[in-house]
Design brief:
heterodimer; A: alpha/beta; B: alpha/beta; Rossmann fold; six-stranded mixed sheet; four-stranded antiparallel sheet; globular
Chain lengths: 435, 251
């Protein structure tokens, strides 16, 4: 396959040049990952996990490894994406822009992964690629091969970071002279140790539109009794490709709230996996995809109850307009011995046009007998009864439709606890509905 | 206020109302009683403009205007209100946001300035005080997870806030225990006014122990077969509906 060869070739150049100074373990990791990608190749719709999502567009486009942007954006340009003056890391084309970022190292470490590899190599080595397995996942393998930069957040035991940490990935893709597009492989590692607490907001956006590819992996570790609130906002250019993996690993009695909101990209695929590895863990997965035009977004979620007495709640709502296509696959695995598991999953899809399409698949694999697992999914247009109810109160038909659609999205957004982010998302949704 | 003449209404091709005549004057309270399936709810839904109810013949004039030519939202803006038998859930929208949207739609229509959230809260608090209720329902999504009684109370609260000229109450009493029924009836009584009319549809006489109507109608087989004063409700309670149904067939 030409596309695979091109990427493997790019890896050789990367390994010989940019990555040549890496420690032995990292070289080994990268080499293993590219070999795995080479073996797996791009997925096809013949594979179960990719049945509804074709990545042909990725294989038909020539991609070069992203290089630093030719100019550094001004603070004013990135202001619309920022959530106040809190701690932040800003990446442009996958490279940390120190002038726009506020890294710190006073116990809590917030820095680019590239810098952390130099400053705290043991800590990175301890966690990197320990959670996001790539054996069966070609895009995670590809990301791992090209591991270089991304956000590194480390919160030591019993420390609470009050302010939300913002991690912003901006694309400014110039078209390469030979017509190739750019691909960036952001790699994030968020480690929140025992009884510590932190909130991280990860945003992917385009500063300049156009065709580019983001292939991101985020690993989140919540130690025993830790609490992590992760927000992920995907608002890429509407011509972009976005492929991502988020893997969360939870210790005993930890709480993770993982929110994933997808507005952008022509083609988006996001795999989210939460592993409840210790008893008493609590996981909330809260997702929204709002699509229009020809957009395609696929969310594959997996919640792995590997320990007893854990609870997981999953809510994903999709709003699909135009000829868009939303895919949701929700897998719940209850391992042998994971008794008293309480797992709830819902996926509701609102179709705003006749051409919009949704595929929703729950997938329960239960190997313990004393558990409570429920799932439900719906696909359908706005409820005509509710529409009449609103109209009977004097609200015009168009406004009533907007209100109901907004309410459908707000069910998910209402769980967002970071006020400026809530306001930002609200604004995006309202603007989209006003179109 | 409302003048209905020879109204025929079909649902899904089946004719339910077969020539209803009804005249409601300003300030009057009319009760419409009748057995299940007689067309009571069809009458209120058709008057409110539900698109699934097709008017096949007849007229309805509201304040001199052709009611049937108006869209549902126009009817509401002109002061018509329907308290639903089965209030509908609106996901993700709080009751207070919904009510403010409705109030502002009406205000805009009247050429009044729209209320901002703070102004609205003030209006809302006055209304709640007037009917003696608190604001516990206001910050929950519309009717979502509400008990039967809460849903009906919520309908009456909307009635209070929207200040309609003509309120249609569709079996607001059904499914309520006696305490909830009294609470709702008291609120309705407080909202009675010389320029506000009520059409109260009910299957049971008991609501009319607490709300005294000016006129009682009996709807059977798609027609009003008998009209009378409040005493008619008691007669129906004692005798049931069958004697009227038989009479309707004879006439």
């Amino acid at each position: 396959m030409v596309a695979v060869e091109r990427l493997v070739e790019a890896y050789r150049a990367f390994a010989a040049n940019g990555a040549s100074g890496a420690p032995a373990w990292l070289k080994e990791l990268r080499d293993g990952a590219i070999a795995r990608f080479d073996a797996l190749g791009f997925p096809t719709t013949k594979q179960e996990a990719w049945r509804f999502t074709s990545v042909a567009a990725l294989t038909e486009t020539a991609f070069d490894l992203a290089h630093p942007a030719s100019r550094i954006p001004q603070l004013a340009e990135i202001q619309p994406f920022l959530l106040g003056d809190g701690p932040r890391l800003v990446f442009v084309n996958g490279f940390l822009q120190r002038s726009l970022s506020t890294p710190f190292f006073d116990g809590v470490r917030l820095d680019g992964l590239a810098q952390a590899l130099v400053a705290a190599p043991d800590l990175v080595h301890q966690h990197l690629s320990k959670y996001a397995a790539f054996t069966e996942r070609p895009f995670a393998a590809l990301n791992t091969a090209f591991v270089r930069d991304g956000a590194f957040v480390h919160v030591p035991a019993k420390v609470t970071v009050e302010e939300p940490i913002q991690v912003l990935f901006l694309s400014m893709p110039p078209i390469a002279t030979d017509g190739a597009r750019l691909v960036a492989h952001p790699r994030n590692l968020i480690v929140v140790e025992r009884e510590a607490r932190a909130t991280v907001v990860e945003t992917y956006a385009a500063l300049e539109g156009g065709v580019y590819w983001t292939n991101a992996v985020t690993e989140v570790v919540a130690g025993d009794g830790a609490r992590v609130d992760c927000y992920r906002v995907q608002r890429e250019s509407d011509r972009a490709y976005h492929v991502a993996v988020t893997d969360v690993h939870q210790g005993r009695d930890s709480t993770v709230n993982l929110h994933a909101v997808a507005f952008g990209a022509a083609l988006a695929r996001h795999d989210l996996r939460g592993t409840l590895a210790g008893p008493g863990g609590y996981l909330i997965l809260n997702g929204l995809y709002l699509l229009a035009g020809e957009q395609h977004a696929d969310h594959h979620t997996a919640i792995d109850h590997a320990a007893p007495h854990c609870e997981s709640h999953e809510y994903f709502n999709g709003v699909l307009d135009g000829r868009s296509h939303g895919v949701f696959n929700g897998r719940i695995i209850v391992r042998p011995g994971a008794q008293k598991t309480d797992s709830k999953q819902t996926n509701n899809n609102l179709l705003l046009s006749r051409e919009a399409h949704a595929d929703s698949q729950p997938q329960l694999e239960i190997y313990a007998d004393d558990v409570k697992c429920t799932h439900g999914s719906t696909v359908g247009p706005l409820d005509p009864k509710a529409l009449f109810y609103l109209r009977s109160r004097g609200i015009g038909e168009a406004e009533a439709r907007r209100l109901m659609t907004y309410g459908f999205a707000a069910e998910i957004l209402n769980r967002v606890d970071v006020a400026p982010l809530r306001a930002q998302l609200d604004q995006i949704v309202r603007a989209r509905l006003a179109e | 206020m409302l003048e209905v003449r020879g109204l025929h209404v079909a649902v899904g091709g089946t004719e339910i109302l077969r020539g209803v005549d009804l005249t409601v004057k300003a300030g009057e309270v009319h009760a419409i009683m009748g057995p299940n399936g007689s067309g009571k709810s069809t009458l209120t839904q058709a008057l409110a403009g539900h698109p699934a109810y097709t008017v096949t013949a007849g007229t309805a004039t509201y304040e001199g205007k052709d009611l049937l030519a108006m869209k549902p939202e126009e009817r509401a803006r002109e002061g018509l209100f329907l308290a639903f038998q089965y209030p509908v859930e609106i996901r993700g929208i709080t009751n207070s946001y919904f009510l403010r949207s409705a109030v502002n739609a009406v205000r805009k229509h009247r050429g009044q300035e729209e209320l901002d959230p703070l102004d609205f809260l003030q209006v809302l608090e006055e209304k709640l005080k007037a009917i003696g209720w608190d604001d516990t329902l206001m910050n929950r999504p519309v009717n979502e997870g509400f008990s039967g009684g809460e849903k009906k109370r919520n309908e009456i609260l909307q009635l209070a806030v929207l200040e309609p000229k003509l309120a249609l109450l569709d079996e607001t009493d059904s499914g309520l225990d006696i305490d909830a029924l009294k609470t709702v009836a008291q609120a309705v009584n407080k909202l009675r006014a010389p320029d506000r009319s009520f059409v109260i549809v009910t299957h049971y006489q008991r609501l009319l122990n607490f709300i005294t109507p000016d006129v009682v109608h009996v709807l059977a087989d798609g027609r009003i077969v008998k009209s009378g004063g409040p005493e008619l409700a008691h007669e129906l309670e004692a005798k049931g509906y069958d004697w009227l149904r038989a009479g309707a067939m004879v006439s």
